[in-house]
Structure formats: C-alpha cells, structure tokens
Design a protein that fits this description.
It is built from 26 helices and 14 strands. With 572 residues, it is of the alpha/beta class. It has 3 domains: 101 residues, Hemocyanin, N-terminal domain, CATH 1.20.1370.30; 159 residues, Rossmann fold (3-Layer(aba) Sandwich), CATH 3.40.50; 187 residues, NAD(P)-binding Rossmann-like Domain (Rossmann fold, 3-Layer(aba) Sandwich). The strands form 3 sheets. The protein has a 7-stranded mixed β-sheet with strand order 8-7-6-9-10-11-14, with helices on both faces. Helix 4 crosses helix 5, helix 5 packs across helix 10 and helix 14 crosses helix 15. The protein is globular, with a radius of gyration of 24 Å. Bound molecules: 1,4-dihydronicotinamide adenine dinucleotide, pyruvic acid (PYR) and magnesium ion.
Length: 572
C-alpha cells in the first residue's frame, strides 16, 4: 500500500484536494493557491473547532451525516483527522446507526456519486467501466448489491452508503489510504416496490435479476477488478444471499464476506471474553440464535471452531446451537425445505415437538447465550430477558442487529431486566446506563473491530487469498487486545479509542497466518519480529495527523510537477 509518491501522477489521483487554511504561505505560493483561501494560516485545532461547531449546529443525525460527507469530499485529510480525534462521537454518524437512515434517504440526500455504480445492463463491458474510475491504483473495494442493507432490507443502489461507510472505517481504523479505496455498488434491480415507484430513485427500474444472472455478473466483475487492479482485496457486504459467491471466490481471489466472516470473527472475540466470566463450561454452553441468516450462521460456525479447539468434537460443538428463523426453531422434521446454510445447525433432538415462539424456545433450551441477528427490534423483551437472568448468573446477551432501531433489545433493557448481570454486546452503539449507581458501558460487537485489520493485513502481505484460518486468527488477535482493566470494567471489546492499535495487531496476526500458510507474497517482512512487523505496518498506515494534503518537497522539479497535479485535482 504505497503512499502517493511525490510525483504528479499520484497527486492527480488523490481524491479531495482543496485549498486548505492550514497550508503555509510557502505552500500556498508553490501551489499558486495564495488568495484562494482566507489569509490566516490556521492550526488543525482551530479548523477542528470550526468543524465541530458546524456539526453541532446541525440538529438531526442525517444533517450531521450530510455535513460529514461533504467534509470528506472537500477536505479528506481534515475529515479523517477529525474522525480519529473524535472516533466514538463520529463513528455512529458516518457508520451504524446513521448510515442506515442515510441509505433509506439516499435518493433524497444524494449530492455526489461517492463510488462506482455498475448496472446489470453494463454486463459485457464491466472492465471498461471499472477503468473509468479516476484513481489508477485501487487496493481495496467494498461491494454490495444493496439487497440486505443492515436490517433494513432491499434498498437497491441506495445501499451505496454502506461501502462508503465501511471504507471510511478502513481509512479511519486501519489507515488504508482513502485514494486506494473503491466503494462499489452493483445495480441488479430491486424488489423494493416503494423504490421502484420513487421518481427520485436512481437505480434500474426493474425487479432483481435471478441468482444465476447475479452469479454471472459477479464472475465478470471479479475478473474485471482483478485485471484492472491485480490482487485487489474485495469485501462483499450486505448481500441477501452471500453464500454462493463466497464459496465460488474465496480460494480464487483475495476476498472475504464481512457479514459471514467478519461478523463471525468479531463475535467470537466477544464470546471468548464473555466465557471468562461464565460459570458454565464450554461443553455445557447452550446458544439460541434468533436469526439464521448470513451473520447468524457465520457467527455460530466461528464459535464451533473455537469450541473444537477447546476440546469438543465437531458434533458436540454443533449441538450447542439452536437456530430460530421466521418459522420457529429449525429442526429436521419441521416440514419445510431448509435453505442450504441452515442445514448444519438443524436440530434432530426435538422429539417431534415444534417450537414457534422465542419464549417457548428459551424454555425448551434454557440457553446460556442469546444471540440476535434477526433484525427484530424488541424480540428480546422483558419476559425473555428475565428468563435469561433467572437461568444464569451471567447470561450472555448479544442483540447484534443493525441499525439501533432493529436491535433485539437496548442496553438499558438488557441491564434493567437482568439486574445488571448480562454480558452484553450490540451491533450499534448504545449510551452508558447507570445501574444501582454504577455506570455500565455497552460493548459494541460490530465487525468494524476486525474488517479493517483483515483488509490491511491482506493488502500488506499481498496474500493470494484470504483463508478461513486468517479470519479465525483475526478473532483471537482481537480478543487478545482486550486489556485486563477493560475486562474488569465489564467490557468485552477494547475501547474504540484505540482502534488503530487494535487494527495493527489484527493485521499482524492476519499476516502471520498468511505466512504460515505460504499465501503471502511479500518476502521482505517474513523475518521481522512481531515488534518490527507492528512498526512496519504502522509506517504503511495513512495518518491524517501527518498529512495535510501536500508534502514537503525536495526538488524544484518535484514541486513544479506536484503543484500542477494538485491544481488539476482541485480544478484550480
Ligand atoms: N453486529 C454486526 O457486526 C453485524 C450485524 N448484522 C445484522 O444482523 C442482522 C441480520 O443480518 P443477516 O444475517 O446478514 O441477514 P439475513 O437476511 O441473512 O438473515 C436474517 C435472519 O433473521 C430471520 N428473521 C427475520 N425476521 C424474523 C422473525 N420475525 N423471527 C425470527 N427470525 C426472523 C430470518 O429468517 C433470517 O434467518 C441485520 O440486522 C444486520 O444488520 C449483520 C452483520 C454484522
Ligand atoms: C455491521 C454490518 O455489517 C451489518 O449490519 O450488516
Ligand atoms: Mg454488513
């Protein structure tokens, strides 16, 4: 992941160069931007103060989202510096939950493309269109078909907010340079009636293509991306049915599915931490999963792997899980044809009984772990939470659906109805809650803790593909970053304020696993110690605190070239 060289090409490729009030007079002179900004040279602190004031003046979350999008598009370095310095405050505005609202309103709030759109009617020419992207070098893309955006359903191309938000976190959390990231939305139609009728909707006005047509489209896309940018890391995001693509591509290209694998890894890390506080041994854990989709199954499979490492056979591990979907508990004799991904966890020990409601299922299973990946706000109601608290001293309760409006319960509900005993993690952030005079902090079990490090590690070691072992390793690495003081205060994940150092550890361990499996193609880092590797990784990370858009240049020729390029990029 090379930093842009000081040459003009790289600078022409940088996304958002605008005259910046932090540029020195010398820089302004050499850029010939003197006079194009107010005269004072400002410190970052002053710029940040103004930005935060403007942000605070916006009264609704969506207005704050729009403000921050405009800032990212007009002064990328200032935006990322602000994000890094105010991570916990700004992440909910650029990612979940507010990105959910942004996607719902995308047709109305649209101001700029934000990424690349490829339509079904473009098939046969995907490579040509991909080459229209103005950056020459792209190393990381997040692609969605918009068919399952968070828990909000099929939003068609309005799902673009998700690749944009995820890639902003790649830059914020893992220092992947913004100009090498590509938000990508494929427009394969939508089955969302309201969108099809909305005159402002900007996607194809057709229902979704068939699974087979989508598969063929993705085949062409993967070839196109890899021909234009060999080795590009592809993150699949928010596909309604993501399993076939993952199976087809995971050993062929450098790619992974965030909802299955990233979520699996991050929740495993939370479970590893929670089990340290549980009095129930691993072999006696019983997990009820509300929701049997890509995330639910991805999470459970990852935990099965962990339980096996803890000494259980695969069958013993698999039997610790009970899955619930819209039709109730998933059993072999329920009478419907199960989707392929549900078969592995389907129960055969229900003795002909069928269980429909979560309440019945909780009574039947007596779970120690309750996972929510169902998009069903409030399904972990007072009665369910009280049952969990009655059965276990420290019940593990993870309402993971996004955005907050879809969460199976809130932090407050979980604390109130379990008398503050639940070990809790949610997909979207929840405010602190005071229970019996003690401030309780909600852990956020969101894949944002791992995908940036997985992507960074994969890019840096130039892995041939992203193996399941690399994903599993990322979970263990994340769990190892939780400090004892954090754990003692009830947190299951490290503080988001040190997400960059967490991402370095995740990236390092991902690289180590790629090296063990000989998937890596960066021999120069094979013999580094962990400390040296961490240092090397950190030198490769974009740091907006050190980069305000224009480098110190050594020669007159470099300055002349970079100036010309800068002016072109800024359309000056
Ligand atoms: N915390 C995190 O990092 C992540 C959270 N998620 C969230 O998890 C949720 C699910 O995502 P996916 O599994 O990818 O979606 P999906 O569409 O593949 O699966 C949803 C599952 O929920 C079940 N479901 C829906 N309504 C139900 C009801 N009334 N009763 C019982 N089950 C019901 C469906 O049958 C399906 O099995 C979404 O809200 C998503 O935002 C997804 C990935 C990561
Ligand atoms: C976080 C995430 O990937 C989701 O909710 O889909
Ligand atoms: Mg997702």
């Amino acid at each position: 992941m090379p930093r842009p060289s000081k040459s003009s090409t790289a600078y022409r490729q940088s996304r958002a160069f605008h005259p910046d009030t932090s540029h020195s007079i010398e820089t302004r002179k050499s850029l010939r931007t003197l006079g194009l900004t107010p005269p004072n040279v400002e410190s970052y602190e002053l710029q940040a103060q103004r930005c935060m004031k403007q942000l605070e003046s916006k009264t609704s979350p969506i207005e704050k989202y729009i403000y921050l999008s405009n800032l990212r598009n007009s002064n990328v370095h200032l935006f990322y510096r602000l994000v890094l310095d105010n991570f916990s405050t700004l992440t909910p505005l650029i990612y979940t939950p507010v990105v959910g609202e942004a996607c719902l309103k995308w047709s109305e709030i649209y101001q700029q493309p934000e990424g690349l759109y490829l339509s079904y009617k473009d098939r046969g020419s995907l490579k040509e269109i991909v080459q229209n992207w103005p950056q020459q070098n792209v190393e990381m893309t997040v692609v969605t078909d918009g068919s399952r955006i968070l828990g909000l359903g099929d939003l068609g191309i309005n799902g673009m907010g998700i690749p944009v938000g995820k890639l902003a976190l790649y830059t914020g959390c893992a220092g992947i340079r913004p100009e090498v990231t590509l938000p990508l939305t494929i427009d394969l139609g939508t089955n969302n009636e309201a969108l099809l009728k909305d005159p402002l909707y900007m996607g194809s006005r057709r229902t979704r293509v068939s699974e087979r047509e989508e598969a063929m489209f993705l085949d062409e896309l993967m070839v196109a991306l890899n021909e234009v940018w060999p080795g590009i890391v592809v993150q699949f995001e928010d596909f309604k049915n993501p399993f076939p693509a993952l199976e087809r591509y995971q050993n062929k290209y450098c790619c992974f599915n965030d909802d299955i694998q990233g979520t699996g890894a991050v929740i495993l890390a939370g479970i590893i931490a929670a089990l340290r506080n549980s009095e129930t041994p691993v072999k006696d854990q019983r997990a009820v999963f509300m929701g049997a989709g890509s995330a639910g199954v991805g999470v459970a499979k990852q935990i099965v792997e962990y339980f096996m490492k803890e000494g259980l056979t695969e069958d013993e591990a698999r039997r610790c899980f009970w899955f619930v979907d819209t039709k109730g508990l998933i059993t072999n004799d329920r009478g419907d044809k199960l989707a392929q991904h549900k078969v592995y966890f389907s129960r055969d020990d229900n003795k002909g009984q069928q269980f429909k409601t979560l309440s019945e299922i909780v009574d039947h299973v007596k779970p120690t772990i309750l996972m929510g990946l169902s998009t069903m706000r409030g399904i972990f109601n007072e009665s369910i939470l009280k049952k969990m608290a009655a059965m276990d001293k420290r019940p593990i309760i993870f309402p993971l659906s996004n955005p907050s409006s879809n969460s199976e319960c809130t932090f407050e509900e979980a604390m109130k109805f379990t008398d503050g005993r639940a070990m809790f993690a949610s997909g979207s952030p929840f405010p602190d809650y005071i229970h019996n005079g003690k401030v309780m902090h909600a852990s956020q079990g969101n894949n944002m803790y791992v995908f940036p490090g997985i992507g960074l590690g994969s890019i840096l070691c130039k892995t041939a593909h992203i193996s399941q072992e690399m994903i599993y390793t990322s979970a263990v690495a994340l769990s190892n970053t939780l400090r004892e003081d954090e754990f003692a205060s009830g947190m299951l994940y490290p503080s988001l304020d040190r997400i960059r150092s967490v991402s370095i550890v995740v990236a390092r361990e991902v690289i180590r696993e790629a090296q063990r499996q000989r998937l890596d193609r960066e021999p120069s880092i094979r013999n580094l110690s962990d400390a040296e590797l961490d240092e090397w990784i950190s030198t490769k990370m974009y740091d907006p605190r050190k980069d305000n858009g224009f480098p110190e240049l050594e020669t007159r020729e470099e300055t002349r070239e970079a100036t010309a390029a800068y002016r072109m990029a800024a359309r000056l």
